[in-house]
Structures are given as C-alpha cells and as structure tokens.
Design goal:
6 strands, 8% strand, 11 helices, two-stranded antiparallel ribbon, single chain, Homing Intron 3 (I-Ppo) Encoded Endonuclease, Chain A
Length: 241
Amino acid sequence: MREPNWTEPELSLFSQVPKIKYKEIALLLPHRTFVAIRNKGRKIHKDRNWRPKLSSGCFSKGFTPWNKDRIIPIEDRIKNKFKVDPNNNCWIWQGFKDKDGYGSIIINQKMNKPHRVMWEIHNGPIPEGINVLHKCDNPPCVNPDHLFLGSQKDNIQDCIKKDRFVRGEKNGRAKLTKNKVIKIYYDNRKYAEIAKDFSVSKASVGSIKKGRNWAHLNLTLPLVLYEKWVDLDTLKKLFPI
C-alpha cells in the first residue's frame, strides 16, 4: 500500500532532528510506520548534504567524563579485588582466574598475574626467567609475605617437597602400582614377556628399567647385586603384585 503524501506539519518535525529522534517522531505520527519515518528523514537530510547520527556514541558538547586524565594506581586496583582470609592471612584474588586458579589482571592492554605485580610493587622488578612462587600453596593469594622468587627447577622441587606433584599411583591414568614397577625393574626376562604379564607396552618396560618412568622410586640397584642379598622368592613376597 502506498504511503500518503507528507504534509508540511509532518515535514517540519524533521527539522528538529537530532534534538528529537525518529522514534519520538513515530509517536507523534502513529499513522506512519517507523521505517517510513526513518527513510523520509534520511532522504531529507541527504538532500541537505547532512545526515544525523542516530547513535554517535560520543559525549555531548562540553561534557567532561569523571575519569578523564585520571590514572588509578595499580596497587589500588589490586587492593579493590582481594579479600583477606582470616584463617591463613591469604589475600584471595576476587577477579578473573585462569584454569589453574591464578588471578589475571589487564595492565597496559596486557594480561598479567596479580601476584607477580604485587611482588614487583613491594620488592622491585622480577629477573628474567624467574617465577614468583607461593609459600602458602594458594594460587589466588597475592599477599607479598606469602611469595618468593625461584626458578622453574625450584618450583618443581617445591612441588615434590610438599607432595603436590602428581606422579606414580596418584596419577589417575597409571596402570601400574609401586610393587609392580619394582618387580618389572628387577625382572631379567625379555621385555616382551614382562610386558605381556603386566599388560603394558615394551616401551613402558624399557622406560622403567632405564629410569625414565617412575624415577622417584630411585630404582638404581642392579639385579645381580640385589640377588646376592635377597633371593627372587623373597623379592616376590616383599613386593607382591
């Protein structure tokens, strides 16, 4: 159906754009559709070489944002995002956390770890290649008193010392037990026979005997020397499957 002709009073409303919006004009002209009003307004202003911005996304003239030229110190940003745990005095990060539980914060358009940032605030720059470790073993903690510097090797040793390193039978995917591994290590048969008895691959048997797998058991005693002190029958009693 063809739209009726526009009257002078109706056209005069478009002269008030952008003080009033097309939606407001639509309320004043209920017999016109919004699409017709919008298209008519765009045509009028196109003829005048000017087209209003319906949503400029800018502040109005003379308006000053409250945060203009204001830089919030990084320490204050972090203080507003942690809570103190009264049980262990950990400063628990309340912001975004990664899959490992460590906090994350954006500084200068880059993602940073707040516990590293807190260390630098209180103790200075972190040397290259050095990690910031937790004494409290609490990943979201940002308390500088609970942090210390260490290499990746120090980090792994700290995990082992505190029994946080998943290895051996603690690994949910482990097919063997400690006793089975000891028997495999001191078994002098062919790899294929051992692998068949313990339902593992020959490569797994070789890795155990060469100390690559289950190395934390420190199985370094040669079988020949071991047999001088303990016979194989006793060995089977000590380490039953």
